[in-house]
Design goal:
single chain; mainly alpha; 6 helices; about 0% strand; globular
Length: about 170
């Protein structure tokens, strides 16, 4: 029973524990958004409404599919949910005005960087090291989770140094 209480206390009363809890909730939100939008013919709706052109002539070949649109929406929802929960409940940020906007930009930027790193790691692990996709995904996920935490802690939600001016 003591072990369960210790785990509970760590999960819900420490920064790292809260980061993992809200990371898990972010994953659930992302999956719900993906499956919700992937189930609809979203591409057809966007073409019909004129938001997405029926045919796009690009110098390279790319096919926009429903699952690709759902993936973009999943990432947007995940980043927004993670920002809101990490900002207030994990790192306790109180930034306002321009400082909050700058904080949001840094958060999104850091998540886009780790997303790119995730893609690069997956390619390298699978194509160069011939690792299975599942193992590569797990290794990459662990690296990205740790890097996201470090970037959030040191870059995005870092507390101002004593004597630094507070922005409104």
């Amino acid at each position: 029973m003591k072990l369960i209480k210790k785990i509970w206390a760590w999960l819900f009363h420490s920064e790292k524990g809260l980061y993992l809890v809200f990371g898990g909730l972010t994953t659930i939100v992302s999956l719900i958004v993906f499956y919700l939008f992937n189930g609809f013919n979203l591409k057809g709706v966007l073409i019909y409404k004129g938001i997405l052109p029926g045919e796009v002539l690009l110098p390279f070949s790319i096919t926009v599919t429903g699952y690709m649109i759902a993936t973009v929406l999943r990432n947007v929802a995940g980043i927004l949910f993670a920002y809101l929960t990490n900002r207030g409940m994990v790192f306790g940020s109180t930034a306002k005005g321009k400082a909050r906007l700058r904080e949001f930009f840094k958060f999104v930027s850091s998540r886009l960087i780790t997303f790119a790193l995730d893609l690069i790691m997956m390619w390298a692990f699978v194509e160069l090291l011939e690792m299975s996709e599942g193992v590569a995904g797990l290794v990459s996920m662990v690296v990205v989770i740790i890097l996201n935490y470090v970037l959030s802690k040191l870059f995005v939600f870092s507390k101002p140094q004593q004597g630094a001016q507070k922005e409104e």
